[in-house]
Each structure stands twice: as C-alpha cells, then as structure tokens.
Amino acid sequence: MQKTFEKLRNKITWQEWLLIIGIGAWLALNLWSLLRYPPPSCDEAYYTASAYHLLKTARFGLPFIADLAGAETSYVVYGRLFLFGQAIFLAFFRSPLVAARMFSFVGVIALALITYALANRLFDRRVALWSMLIIAVDWPVFMQGHSGRPDIWMTAAVAFGLLLVFWLADKPSAGRALLAGFAAALLQDIHLNGVHFIAAIGLIALIEIGFRQKRWGAVGMFVLGGILGAGYFLIVHLFPDPQLAITQYRSLTLGEDREFWQHSLWFHARNLGMFLWNNFVRGQSGLAIITAAFFALGLIGAPLRKEKRNALYLVIFFVISLLSFSWVNVFKPSYYAVLWHPVLVILGAAGIFWLAGDAGGIIKRLSDPVRQRIAPGLLSLLLIALAAGDVYLAVKFRTVDYAGMVGEMRGLIEPGSRVMADELWWYGLYDQDMVASITLNMAQYTRHEQPGDRDNLRADMDSLQPDYVILDNALACQDVSEAAREYLGEYVDERCEAVGSVDGEWFETSTVYACSYD
Questions:
Q1: Measured between alpha carbons, how far is 117 from 135 in angstroms, rounded to an integer?
Q2: pTM (2 d.p.)
Q3: What ranges in 361-401 are assigned the alpha helix state H?
Q4: Residue 153's pLDDT band (boundaries 50, 70, 90)?
Q5: Cα–Cα distance measured from residue 429 to residue 407, given in angstroms and rounded to the nearest whole number
Q6: Is the bond preceding 240 in cis, omega lying within 30 degrees of 0?
Q7: What span, in angstroms and rounded, lies between the C-alpha atoms of 46 and 464?
C-alpha cells in the first residue's frame, strides 16, 4: 500500500497538487460559511417551507400563509422539480436550514462540472478548466450557492440544457433530440425564469441542427420533446385542483406591477440598463466591474476570432434570453443575474486565450513562452481576486448565529403554539403552527381589498388568533405594509405581553409577545 501511494504521489505534478489543495480549501470555506453567508432570508424560507410541506403531506403547497387561495393544497408558482430535490435533502438532515443550503451547495458542484463539460465541448480543455475554477469562486455563485432559493440549480440546469443541444449536434438522433427538447421545457419547472431560456436554447438547436446540419427530423423531435415537457409542466401544476391552480396563478402572479405589457419599450430598456448597472458595475461595492470587464472581453471578442461559431452561439443565447427576461420581468432582483454567469465566464475565459493567442497587436510580437503564460497569468489573477472576495465575505459574516437566535426564541414559546412571525424565522419555528406576517397583506391582496384597511386587518387577526407574535424594529422581511406594521404594534399593545427579546448580529432585535383572548 505504501509503495502504491509513493508511486501515485510521484506521478502527480505540482500543478495537480495545487489543484487538489485548492479544491479542499474551497470545500472547507463553503462548508464553514454555509449557514452564515448570506444570513438566512425570508425569500428562501418560502421555498424550504414548501419543500417541507411536500415531504410531510405529498402536496406542493405553502403552509405558513393560513391556506390563503388554497395555498396548502397547491402553490402553483413554485417549480416542482426544485421542491422535490430540496424535499429529499430535508428527509436526510434534521435542520431545514442545513438541508436547504446543502442542496444548493450540491448545485454549485453540479454547476462547476457542467460548466467544464460545456466549455470543453465548445472550446478546449484549457478554457474548460479555467471556466470551472472561476465559476466555482464567482461571487454571485458563492452567495446563491448558500441560499435556499432555486437560482443556483436554475443556473446549472440552463447550462445543462445548452450542453444537451451541443451533445445532440455532435450526433443527431431521435432519442437525443427528444431528451434535449424535454429537458429545455423542464427549465420552467425549476423556476419560472426558466421560460426565458427555452426559446434561446431552441434557437441554437434550430440554427445548428436545422439550418446548418439540415437534420430537420431531429429538429422535429426536439420540438416534440419540448411539447411533452410543456405537457408535464401543465399536468403537475394544474393538479390536484385545476380550477384552483388557474385562479391562484391569476391572483398570485399578476398585479404588483407585473403586467409587463402595460409598459413602454423605453421603460423596459431603462429597467434592463438599471439591472445590468446594479449587477455588473455597482455590485459588490463596485468590484463587479472586474468581472464585467472579463465578461465584456468575451462578448466583444466573440465575432473577431477565427473560429467563432461556438462563441457566437453563446452570444446569441445571452442576448435572446436577456431580452426575454428584460421584457417579461418588471421586477428584477439582483440575485437573478447569476443565471447568465456560466455563459459569460466561458466566453470570458475563451476571450482571454484568444487575446493572448490570435488577437494580434503588441502581444503577437512577444516570444512564444511569454505569450503562453499571458492567459494563465491573467486568469490566475482573476481567480485569486474572486477567491479572496469569498474569504472576505465568509470572515465578515462569521458572527451570524441564526441557530442561537431561534434557540432563544423557542425558549420563550410554548411547544405547539400558533406563532405569527416573519418568514425569516420559519427555519427555526418550522415545527410550530407558524403564520407568516405577510399573511396580513396577502389576505387582502387575494380578496382584492384596499391594502392596510384597519377593519380587515382586525378581522384577519381575530380569525388567526396567534398565541405569540414576534416583532422586530421594522419587520425584517420588508414585505408587510406600513399600515399592517402599525396595526400589529397596536394589536400586541392591546392583546399581548412581551415575554422577552432576542438579539443577534446581522438581525434586528426581535421581541416575543404572548397573547391572550379571554
């Protein structure tokens, strides 16, 4: 055994040892910071609560909004595939927060491997290796890979959908075409944002397999696969109650300034510009400009290189999907930007090698040994900068102690009680009868009532009758109207008594009130 180990050690180069040590350090950093950065959020709790509900009831519902619009029977807007995957992890981990974030971290590993495979297919092993390393330490990936939201799995699935199309292009067949089309359609069952990438993937398939290879039979099977995938999506989202699903979809996905067709082209263009500016210039305290320059090199250099077809495919994919996203999504939170990072990273890495090899200019005059080190040198600097940023964020948020805070909260609450709190605290109160504070807003929204009406708020609270109410200084989720905040303050003054407060860095001070209805 010792001789075998000695032989293996002698065969591994210093670069390979460096890679092994780096992967080990990357794993350690991610696992150490998994529950700390970013601090648990309200939005990710929605998804994990739904996955937990699936695990316990076999229904794709949302349990903590008091069954508004039949939400405990079915919550139509969430992707079933993502919830199913998260539910599997919930079955193996005692803590829902650990389960949700471990599932997302596995998504990061899948994303890195898929990025390698896609870059290797489109360019070469050098581009593939550097693309994999950079996407693994990319700042938005580091953040979303620690979140219970579906964005990291959505990102991996989009890259995989592209990979399947190029796999089909290598060897067109009816089976491969059917699978690629079906997988593309399934993107929307991870998150509704998947719909923006279906047309872009389909266009690449049409250009490469149809117009270029003249394999129109394979294109037809790809379309058939897409139709079957769309059929699956409709079935799993409509049942068990089709009428409820249709009504719920209208009430939960429309309104709140989501009617994109009511806005002008100028509005959408400006909205997209703000999204790009906030994510690729102002993001990470302005440091996002570093990766923006890297991405821009890939996008600008794509049509200039000698072998440009594959690079142009990625540019087409990026432009088409981004325009679709911009047109339909009026509300554009920053965490959506990660969806385009694999394509941009691959283009950027390929662009660096193009710049060092074929771009010409002063670089062309350098000696071959120097030119061969330019691309790895520049990419190493970017990799070090991104990794340093990850370390900084992990250290900065090392004092986040969500488990400690919820432990104190649970000590103030009788088991089995009905608790009204921000969605944020579901990860700690999942086994209580918890009602989210946003229920007060959603109840009036689903009934098409004037938001913040005091009589309706009073009637809803009298109906809910929570045993405990947990309030912070501003309601951390920021999705409860000012009128509802004020009313909750009045409500606890009238019906409840403070039994304790809980403090923690990175969180608002929360006060627990015990309520009585005698």
A1: 13
A2: 0.93
A3: 368-396
A4: very high
A5: 10
A6: yes
A7: 20
